[in-house]
């Protein structure tokens, strides 16, 4: 058997193009409204020279180590994971069973590469994405990337194939995950860049476009790209390590609180603020009343008091504020991101108005390429189309006509979208019509509205044909695709009487 170095399928990293040598797009000069605005990720050619962006088979890379994204028991059934175990050979199974057994989410552990060109494999477990626990998912993903890089540094691994730890299989949106990955890598290289020679960002089709768009924001390749990044970076770029920052969790930590209380009383609050040295990393904009610090005076429930003074709101209010902030971030992106390719599918569009002058939005199931579309961009496009009308009553018509398995929206994605969309969508939705349903559609809709979206259950209507809409929406106000009309004619005949009863409700 030939040595690994002689295998034809091995990728030598010296043959890969470095990020600082990749082709640059043409950037429109920025209107410098704020001359003092400085980039938090300045152009660093030395760091860019350590990065390669590559789409291909991770197991072919001839690096010191590659990163394997898996589950807690290291038995993830995915194409990439199966391929890795197949090529590494049975010795990898034996080492895992003997030395690792289980990995917690966010951790990183090392094994030998065995039959792979890479000498080592770093195994890590990415988080499952749930919009209700967005902060936890972001923090766990940061830990994955940070711990992976730290482990590589501790083991003197100088070249690494870094696969995407944020996976669509675990529900993580490619764009959001790429922001965390890129900024964590950038901050780590700023501190420990001398520890690495090459880091290959290994992509597949589900996240290649995201990396191409986001990597320039954190690793600009010239001064023009650095200026471009100034206007396109998200508001939250993390702390000095790239870790997500949660403002509501930042509190002031005072040294010797009893002494602080004394100083506040005898010196004066204004002088006291200038006297003590507070670590700004842990400070909020609202000062803590040190005279009522739980260490300085007895309180029945200091945690409850702290929550009241810092948050000023109950748990329901905090969740509502978090949800609103999350939606506003998405709305900002929906207005600025390039969604031309999503709009071109014409799966969602505004039609006319119903008989009560309420706007109608049409969703065409057959036009939605669920298996190939960027689901995060699809959500942004939905927000772009619907946000302008969601402040008042509106109608949604969904054509399920001739849909196949390629068009079915994953249930987990539906739940995520339902929770992300602002409350006004549910409040102002008056009717949701499902046209040409199948038995499976009825079952899935019942399940979704029973266990996830019970507040819109009474607004959903199952109807057998297009003409059942005409009692509430006139034909001239519906932009119906030709194939829907043709199918409707074959199914229901060219003309038929509309029964007097209301559409079938769930």
UniProtKB/TrEMBL annotation:
Database matches in Pfam families: CRAL_TRIO_2, Macro
The protein's name: Protein GDAP2 homolog
Similarity section: Belongs to the GDAP2 family.
InterPro entries assigned: CRAL-TRIO_dom, CRAL-TRIO_dom_sf, Macro_dom, Macro_dom-like, Macro_GDAP2
Transmembrane segments: none
Domain CRAL-TRIO: 335-492
Species of provenance: Patella caerulea (Rayed Mediterranean limpet)
CDD domains: Macro_GDAP2-like (cd02905), SEC14 (cd00170)
Domain of life from the UniProt record: Eukaryota
Domain Macro: 38-219
């Amino acid at each position: 058997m030939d040595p690994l170095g002689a295998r034809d399928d091995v990728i030598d990293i010296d043959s890969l193009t470095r990020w600082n040598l990749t082709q640059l797009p043409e950037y429109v000069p920025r209107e410098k409204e704020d001359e003092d605005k400085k980039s938090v990720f300045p152009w660093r050619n030395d760091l860019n020279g350590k990065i390669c962006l590559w789409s291909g088979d991770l197991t072919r890379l001839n690096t010191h180590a590659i990163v394997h994204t898996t589950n807690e028991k290291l038995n993830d059934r995915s194409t990439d994971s199966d391929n890795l175990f197949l090529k590494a050979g049975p010795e990898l199974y034996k080492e895992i069973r003997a030395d690792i057994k289980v990995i917690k989410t966010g951790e990183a552990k090392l094994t030998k590469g065995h039959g792979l060109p890479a000498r080592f494999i770093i195994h890590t477990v990415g988080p499952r994405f749930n919009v209700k626990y967005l902060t936890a998912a972001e923090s766990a993903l940061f830990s994955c990337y940070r711990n992976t890089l730290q482990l590589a540094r501790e083991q003197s691994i100088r070249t690494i194939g870094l696969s995407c730890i944020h996976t669509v299989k675990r529900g993580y949106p490619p764009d959001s995950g790429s922001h965390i990955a890129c900024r964590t890598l950038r901050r780590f290289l700023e501190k420990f860049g001398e520890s690495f020679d090459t880091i290959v960002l290994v992509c597949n089709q589900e996240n290649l476009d995201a990396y191409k768009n986001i990597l320039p924001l954190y690793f600009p390749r010239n001064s023009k790209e650095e200026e471009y990044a100034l206007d396109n970076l998200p508001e939250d770029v993390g702390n000095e390590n790239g870790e997500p920052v949660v403002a509501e969790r930042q509190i002031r930590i005072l040294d010797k609180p009893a002494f602080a209380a004394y100083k506040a009383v005898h010196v004066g609050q204004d002088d006291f603020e200038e006297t003590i040295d507070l670590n700004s990393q842990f400070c909020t904009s609202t000062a803590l009343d040190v005279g009522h610090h739980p260490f300085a005076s007895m309180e029945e429930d200091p945690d409850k008091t702290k929550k009241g003074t810092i948050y000023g709101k109950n748990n329901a209010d905090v969740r509502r504020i978090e949800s609103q902030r999350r939606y506003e971030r998405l709305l900002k992106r929906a207005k600025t991101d390039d969604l031309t390719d999503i709009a071109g599918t014409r799966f969602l569009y505004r039609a006319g108005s119903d008989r009560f002058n309420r706007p109608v939005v049409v969703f065409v199931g057959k036009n939605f390429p669920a298996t190939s579309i960027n689901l995060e961009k699809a959500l942004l496009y939905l927000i772009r189309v619907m946000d302008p009308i969601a402040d008042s009553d509106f109608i949604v018509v969904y054509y399920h006509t001739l849909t196949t398995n390629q068009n079915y929206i994953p249930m987990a994605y539906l739940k995520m979208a339902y929770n992300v969309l602002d409350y006004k969508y549910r409040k102002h939705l008056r009717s949701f019509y499902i046209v040409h349903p199948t038995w499976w559609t009825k079952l899935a809709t019942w399940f979704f509205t029973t266990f996830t979206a019970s507040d819109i259950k009474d607004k959903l209507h199952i109807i057998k044909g297009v003409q059942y809409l005409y009692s509430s929406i006139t034909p001239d106000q519906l932009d119906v695709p030709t194939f829907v009309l043709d199918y409707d004619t074959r199914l229901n005949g060219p003309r038929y009487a509309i029964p007097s009863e209301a559409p079938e409700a769930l």
